[in-house]
Amino acid sequence: VRRRSSKEIQDPVNVQNILEFNELKYKDSETRMGLRRMYPSPPKDDQTLEIQQQALLREQQKKLDRMRIRRQMEDDAFSGDNPQTTGQFRNGSNEFLKNSLLESDSAFIGANGETFLDFK
């Protein structure tokens, strides 16, 4: 009589997790097809399950980000809004530009290497 090693005996909960993940993985969708190309074999243990789940989550997050960007672009195109004309970047006193973290001093460099600071 041969006894199964501890590696061969898996916690029933973990086996159920693997079965549920495989069910999700093999449903037809663009994200899942990409996951199947990256990881063609099903997970066999906790470590491979975790790796494949993280990969699926990353792919789904990328898809959500693309959808948000596309929706924002469609909304902007539909409303005709442009950040430069909606007041986001424009302020009568230029207060936004003065307090911007992106503010920097400009310098112009002449043909002979001399620098001229931009004084406003």
Structure report:
The chain is mostly helical. It has a domain at 12-93. The chain contains 4 helices and 2 strands, in the order H-H-H-H-E-E. A two-stranded antiparallel ribbon has the order 1-2. Strand 1 (107-109) and strand 2 (115-117) form a beta hairpin. Helix 1 packs parallel to helix 3 and helix 2 (30-38) packs antiparallel against helix 3. The longest helix is centred in the middle third of the chain and has 34 residues, at 46-79. The chain is elongated, with a radius of gyration of 28 Å. The protein starts with 11 loop residues before the first helix and ends with a strand. The model has no long low-confidence stretch (mean pLDDT 72). Residues 81-92 have a biased composition (Polar residues). This is Centrosome and spindle pole-associated protein 1 C-terminal domain-containing protein. One of its GO terms (biological process) is positive regulation of cytokinesis.
